[in-house]
Amino acid sequence: MDNFDDIESAKSHHHLMKRPPVDIEFSDLTYSVPHGPNGSKIILRSVSGLFRSGELTAILGPSGAGKSTLINVLAGYRCGDARGSIMVNSKPRDMKSFRKMCRYIMQEDLLQPSLTVMESMKISTDLKLGHTITDDIKLETIESILEMLRLTKAKNTLMENLSGGERKRLSIALELVNNPPVIFLDEPTTGLDDLSSTQCVSLLKELAHGGRTIICSIHTPSARIFAMFSHIYIVAEGQCMFSGVGQDMVPYLSSIGLNCPKHFNPADFMIEVCSREYGDFSEKMSSSVDNGKCLRWHKDNSETRKPIVRRASQYDTVSKHHYDFSSSGWSQFKVLLRRMAIQHKRNIAYLLFKFFMYTFIGFVVGGMFFQFGNDGSRTLYNYGFMFITIIVFMYTPLMPVLLKFPHEVQLLKREYFNRWYGLNAYFCALTCSQLPAQLILSSVYIVITYFLTNQPLEWDRMLKFYVICVMVSLSSESLAYALSSQLNVTNSVFLGPCLACPMMLLSSFGLGYKEEEIPALIRLGMSLSYLRYGVEGLVMSVYGNGRARLDCPKSEDYCDLRDPSALFDTVGMSEVSYGKSLTLLCLMFIAFKVTSYAMLRWRLSTNPSLLLKLGFVGRFIKAHFNIPR
Ligand SMILES: Nc1ncnc2c1ncn2[C@@H]1O[C@H](COP(=O)(O)OP(=O)(O)OP(=O)(O)O)[C@@H](O)[C@H]1O
């Protein structure tokens, strides 16, 4: 088969270099999830097992048996309510160092959109190999991995145009770049045809031969694929039904009175047994392998006929390896910024659409308040223009983030978990990547409306107006990140505008009231609405700083608000200054930014959900408000 030749030719390369052994042993592992307001559902029931380096382990079992959960818990992706012990090289798993050496390829192929295969491989190598390795070596590594995974022909294809098999292989390729010693794969062959599945598993086998610990869950493998695994671990109903070498599965089943028919795929037979097609053998099977503790069927040392036991000195070499980030935070930031810039460039149609939308809204609003800026009889209408401008700068950056970011978080979770980069670098790159478009689009709207509505053409007033609009839009964007980093799309899109409504109302509250007439609670709400500081800032930039009395058209007998101070009294802003409003707006922006960072860190954390620690209230929120973790 071509692929075997490819693998042979690639053996000498960096990504297939031998790795020191990492053995994973778990015992009495129990995992439950909250179920209903008070209850919990046990998914893993005191299972034990040993997954050794140099072995390709398959976790098999009927659908819903707990395979993905076992992988999630072992990889540390979900720790939730897990109890029991997980040992790595005979020492309790230290999540911090374990995460540095393990990679997790999830069932869904979460790949960054709008990048070609080559671009994503380059970004992956730049992030993972850092700048200590020359570009030539990186390119060589990429070329050989792509060749090995038969992706060379697709290297200039955009991710979204790849076939299911190619996407799966690319997910593996991206993680192979820095030669991880432990790889978890959740159903790597799902969606692949027979040939692609065989090639994928033979690649994993080759990687395992290089000393890696490769653990994957798999659905009903063909007899050929089944024979490729060095270790089979069967799970059903959250318990271990068998753990050992594939060839021993038929004798094992015979030993408990279940004879696999000739010419029957042992994996299929085992799944049928676990699905109770031949009666209930679950307890018998699970107790005969001591729920995974029994090593009788494991690959043994041919001389001693005992399971292979490693020497402590072999494990020591692992700690000498450095699996830390190869690139500095600054390099990660630059690479991520480059990636986001490419994605923006590829999405130029979306940017153009936004440009036209801002232009269109600019003309609509400018037309509605045409020439009101210096008209003493229309001062309140002009105040309305400023209020609407703030609403525009609240909604336009809010909605796209609420719609897009919940999906982006999934990608972020995968890359962050697999230690492509740190959160600080990502967060800074995300903030900076949005800024140029934000500044340009804000200018488009402001230039159109400012001139159409005939606001004072003084540089300092225009600049002040611009700064307030940009700060409101950046605050709205940060608020949207804070919400959408915790919620799914449906809830984000619902909650965002719901929160915006009271803030909008509070921003213009006070019209016609004296400050002491406003109830204390509403005054508190007003002081928490960043939109209010936005409206105040715009009013002060246009009317503050000693603006002269406005023109009063001849058609009017009397213009009661032609004096700016009369407007300040009417809208309850006589005590307001531009500097104070801008400072408070900036503080609100910082508060939103810090909140969105903290929310994101919380979302990426593998610790038990904070909500679960809150007891009943937390469980209720989690169960009924679709909080994804
Ligand atoms: N958060 C959760 N809340 C409630 N039940 C859950 C949760 N996560 C998993 N389960 C349940 O736990 C069981 C095991 O799920 P898991 O995804 O591990 O199964 P699996 O063996 O990987 O299945 P499949 O092969 O179909 O992917 C299933 O019955 C599933 O419904």
Automatic annotation (TrEMBL):
<keyword id="KW-0067">ATP-binding</keyword>
<protein>
    <submittedName>
        <fullName>ATP-binding cassette sub-family G member 4-like</fullName>
    </submittedName>
</protein>
<feature type="transmembrane region" description="Helical">
    <location>
        <begin position="348"/>
        <end position="371"/>
    </location>
</feature>
<dbReference type="GO" id="GO:0005886">
    <property type="term" value="C:plasma membrane"/>
</dbReference>
<feature type="domain" description="ABC transporter">
    <location>
        <begin position="24"/>
        <end position="262"/>
    </location>
</feature>
<dbReference type="GO" id="GO:0005524">
    <property type="term" value="F:ATP binding"/>
</dbReference>
<keyword id="KW-0813">Transport</keyword>
<feature type="transmembrane region" description="Helical">
    <location>
        <begin position="494"/>
        <end position="513"/>
    </location>
</feature>
<dbReference type="Pfam" id="PF00005">
    <property type="entry name" value="ABC_tran"/>
</dbReference>
<dbReference type="InterPro" id="IPR027417">
    <property type="entry name" value="P-loop_NTPase"/>
</dbReference>
<keyword id="KW-0547">Nucleotide-binding</keyword>
<feature type="transmembrane region" description="Helical">
    <location>
        <begin position="463"/>
        <end position="482"/>
    </location>
</feature>
<comment type="similarity">
    <text>Belongs to the ABC transporter superfamily. ABCG family. Eye pigment precursor importer (TC 3.A.1.204) subfamily.</text>
</comment>
<dbReference type="GO" id="GO:0016887">
    <property type="term" value="F:ATP hydrolysis activity"/>
</dbReference>
<dbReference type="GO" id="GO:0140359">
    <property type="term" value="F:ABC-type transporter activity"/>
</dbReference>
<dbReference type="InterPro" id="IPR017871">
    <property type="entry name" value="ABC_transporter-like_CS"/>
</dbReference>
<dbReference type="InterPro" id="IPR043926">
    <property type="entry name" value="ABCG_dom"/>
</dbReference>
<feature type="transmembrane region" description="Helical">
    <location>
        <begin position="423"/>
        <end position="451"/>
    </location>
</feature>
<dbReference type="InterPro" id="IPR050352">
    <property type="entry name" value="ABCG_transporters"/>
</dbReference>
<dbReference type="Pfam" id="PF01061">
    <property type="entry name" value="ABC2_membrane"/>
</dbReference>
<feature type="transmembrane region" description="Helical">
    <location>
        <begin position="383"/>
        <end position="403"/>
    </location>
</feature>
<keyword id="KW-0812">Transmembrane</keyword>
<dbReference type="InterPro" id="IPR013525">
    <property type="entry name" value="ABC2_TM"/>
</dbReference>
<dbReference type="InterPro" id="IPR003439">
    <property type="entry name" value="ABC_transporter-like_ATP-bd"/>
</dbReference>
<keyword id="KW-1133">Transmembrane helix</keyword>
<keyword id="KW-0472">Membrane</keyword>
<dbReference type="InterPro" id="IPR003593">
    <property type="entry name" value="AAA+_ATPase"/>
</dbReference>
<dbReference type="Pfam" id="PF19055">
    <property type="entry name" value="ABC2_membrane_7"/>
</dbReference>
